[in-house]
Amino acid sequence: MAIDLTIKVAGEGGEGVISSGDFIMQAATRAGMEVVTFKSFPAEIKGGYALSQVRISDQKIPSQGDGFDILVAFNGEAYEVNKPLLTPGTIMVWDGPKGGDFEPEEHDGVQMFAVPMSDIAKNQLKNYIAKNMVAMGAVVELFGLPEESLKSSIHDKFIKKGQEVVDFNYQAIELGRAWIRENYPDRKVTQSFPESKEQKDLVILEGNQALALGAVMAGCRFYGAYPITPATSVGNHLVDLMHHVNGTVYQAEDEISALATVIGASFTGVKSMTCTAGPGISLMQELIGLAIMSEVPVVIGDIQRGGPSTGMPTKHDQGDLFACCLGSHGDAPRIVLAVADVSDCVYLTIDAFNLAEKYQTPVMLLSDASLSIQTEPIPRPDMSKVKLVAREFAEPPAEGEHFNRYQITASGVSPMGAPGIPGTNYAATGLEHAEDSGPRTNIETRNAMTEKRWRKFDGIEDAFTPIEREGEDGDDLGIISWGMTQSVTREAVARLRAQGHKVSALYPKMLWPIPQKQIEAFAKSVKKVVVPEANFQGQFADLIKMRTNVVPIKFNAYRGEPLIPKEIENMALNLLQQAAGAAPKARLAIH
Amino acid sequence: MALPATLNVHVTEPLKPKDYRSEIVPTWCPGCGDFGVVGALAKAYAEQLYEPSSVTTVSGIGCSSRLPLWMNSFGIHSCHGRAVPVAIGAHLARPEMPVVVTIGDGDCFSIGGGHIGPPARRNMNMTVIVMDNGTFALTKNQNSPTSRVGLPGSLASGMGNLDEPMNPIELMITYGATFVAQTYSANAKHMGLIINQALSHKGFSFVNVLSPCPTYNKVDTFAYFKPRIHDINEEGEHTTLTDRAAALVKAGELYEHHKREDAPVPVGVYYKVDKPVYAEKVAKVREYYKATDNPQWDEILDRFKP
């Protein structure tokens, strides 16, 4: 029987909740276990409810899972928020019996371990900051979190500050362990970590770090951005990475400027990217149009958060799809991709650059607040296996010939001039233009150029096919999901199929231009189609309805948290029982 | 073909000014001040020995921003107000490439007002030339940030412009530009000298060109400027160009002629100082980190081991 354990640390932001999760994650990975993390914290710098959840298994895990097996409650708020989720079989480690700020009730079938983490930190260690380490010690003693790998993680994190800091943290761990040994000598714990194994050849990355790595692997050498949650950290990671590849990170004065610098840099022939979140996408709309009209390749990452307006800056949402597919004025074609997990953050980012260069177009790359900080180990990328697409640069024109940047071609893509290639200079313009880039508004030119810009994407569905079908023809239900919801759907579908239900799923990575043929074929092969997504309107479902002959059922959560596998499972079971009709509302929560 | 790793910025044999002009015929009104600017810029490119395929001229939207289309250079005719950040991207991607921004007063100081400060403060090695006609002309006469009080404008009060004009020279000195000058589009000689100095200056250069709009600005005309134009750099009047305080005092007199009939319209260099440019600072950081075009992927990936 596979071990599948989820441990959740919850408390006030700033008291080590997030770092506890990170240490558990890292220690488990070092001990050869599979992990997926889920974190959530408020937009404020300090205070407010924060959680860090680590799902650990001895087998590959598709998503963050449904909930927790072990809760480590740092304060009363953490307890109150999670109280409804303390179901029989779960375990709570809490800050008590003295020194904490709450007294839990009895919960049927829930094992409780009081660990006076605040009290030990304050009175024995004389430093409240060590509270989370005391809690970690208890987790080591209770559930077999491998102490050696935890200690090595702590060592690597704190050695810069000196051996005494490392030793202080080790001491805190030991006090947490000792408390459990002394106070619960006869405990029988129902949950435990898997056995340690030899560590595989992995790298461990959080979503935005993986996206930054993917960009650099793809050849990105210019990144212009403006700070915005939850996209800022892509730039933080790139500052470091660009040092290794002679690239540039530029902090612009706003998101409009950020995209402008990226367009200017790419114009000169350098692969370039910006990342932002919803408010930045709103500001960038006009310049997205410029990149489309002047056919400059750019990659625009949108790490989605709850909108509209400032909305919920740190919370999960999939509500920017319309803005990314349909935003900017006029007939404005572009490509939109969405990442589903950390591995996608590396490899789909590389695809984004390849597509941008191949089609000389903006590529919108959608991620989200949860995935941006979700950590997962993935096999160490092999640069020698990565295929990169080079831009089609023009040859110097023959003597007396004029270079036509926007030459009408069968593919719609025209060779691009660049500084340094003699005679290929031209003026890129957002005005409608003729082949020689001169402004022109006559009917023939307008028709030819509009058709050229759209023709580029004819057949892209056949050329770029990162779409996966699960299940068989004739299945009773087909689920189409995108972005992080794909990972959750995978887990739900595996469970449903294991129960014998005939459920299929389709996992597109390119959302726009919509993979029409594949969606229509999929819909034809199943009895009904549902699209679960984390937005109110059912934006992908609407786009499918708009551009294909499929009318999907919608299933939406817009609470600021990702959907969880159990919800999709319940939704599917409900739809399988119903002959027809709408899906139930998503009402479960992770808290 | 592959993108050349190095850029030959200069021609070996000098070209003529007309070699820097494209075949596209300008669409400006007859008598537009901007004709003088495109002519002076082409001449300056020739004098700087720029290779046309190694220089980028960037603009926004407006009458004057059509200028890159009339030039034989790389050009980006971008969005309204966004020329400067587009130019920053081009500059940072190819720091050795000359980058020149040619925009109007509305582009620079109205819609793009937030973009002009950062590259000035960072002393990026580029030149911004503003063709200042004190009006939004392409949209047929609305007041701009440099319109004088009372100037008619279709969106103005009904009694003309209510606002004091902003002072581009004061603003750019304050933002940290290291070369700040004003010139006049009907004086080809002065304009040529100033633009050449701006292009030669290592750092952020700003040139405000008084460039009359014969169609919509019936006050700030060639006839108005001609008798009033006065070179501040002559006869020892303003010669210590590195003195920021003195430059600001001098800049404060920019619009005296709006108030006094006998006051001159000043042209000349207000401020010129040598400071490290942004690209040099970036190069030092790269040197410190031993940045390379041949990344060691094993070393990079090792950083992400658990």
Give the chain pair forming the largest contact, with residue counts: A-B, 77 and 64 residues
Distance between the termini of chain A: 28 Å
H/I helix tally of chain B: 11
Structural class of chain B: alpha/beta
By secondary-structure content and strand pairing, the structural class of chain A works out as alpha/beta
CATH homologous superfamily caption of the largest domain in chain A: Thiamin diphosphate (ThDP)-binding fold, Pyr/PP domains
- Describe the largest sheet of chain A: 7 strands, mixed
Topology pattern of chain B, helix = H, strand = E: HEEHEHHEEEHEHEHEHHEHH
CATH C-level label of the largest domain in chain A: Alpha Beta
Indicate the radius of gyration of chain B in whole angstroms.
Answer: 20 Å
Helix content of chain A: 25-40%
Would you tell me the overall average pLDDT of chain B? 97
Unreliably modeled segments of chain B: none
| Strand adjacency order, main sheet of chain B | 2-1-3-4-8-7-10-9
The CATH class of chain B turns out to be Alpha Beta
How many strand segments of chain A?
Answer: 21
CATH fold-level label of the largest domain in chain A: Rossmann fold
Mean pLDDT over the full residue set of chain A: 95
Query: Rg of chain A from C-alpha positions?
Result: 26 Å
Q: Compute the number of helices of chain A.
A: 19
